[in-house]
């Protein structure tokens, strides 16, 4: 039989994993839907001229794309101001898969957050003198593991971005619709490789700053409550 301390340690570890997962998915959402980020990247990459539209129209197209990904627009039949569809059938079909990935991510994040709250409430009731110390200790180790994994992925991206990018798509998509033509497909004109490299950098920065702040807080909390319980 597991004793109270072991059960509290297990619950704390699972809660810490869910906390890191929630931070990760929230960081992805924040960066992926940051319109200022898109605007900055379009300026750097001269995207409006490449697509053949004005900067304002390009941002309007982006707005519709982001609304679609949030499931606030039924389809991606976006029209140019001069007439004609912005995105082709292959691009639209790929974005259906991307939209599902985002929606599953939102649901997973919300479920994880709910479970975190339930777990903390239960621990605070059942283990009032243990839970903060154990949760802080578990978060230190779990976040350390995730930080190492993040660094390793970052090294992989620096060494061979295309390989990592291809592996990502092969894992999360069961088709080759993501293989678009940069000469004809507007979606890849708007978001070329350099766009996603910068997107990953933004995400990593947001994620690491948040995790780092919580890691410092956890170290302080663990030290404080260890002194109280010793």
Describe the structure concisely for a colleague:
Helices cover 79% and strands 0% of the residues. By secondary structure, it is mostly helical.
Structure description:
The chain is mostly helical and 230 residues long. Helix content is 79%, strand content 0%. The chain is built from nine helices and no strands. It has helices at residues 4-32, 35-45, 47-51, 55-69, 89-126, 131-159, 161-172, 186-190, 193-229. The longest helix has 38 residues, at 89-126. It is elongated and about 70 Å long. The two termini are 25 Å apart.
List the helices and strands and how they pair.
Elements: H1 4-32, H2 35-45, H3 47-51, H4 55-69, H5 89-126, H6 131-159, H7 161-172, H8 186-190, H9 193-229
Helix pairs in contact: 1-5, 1-6, 1-9, 2-4, 6-7, 6-9
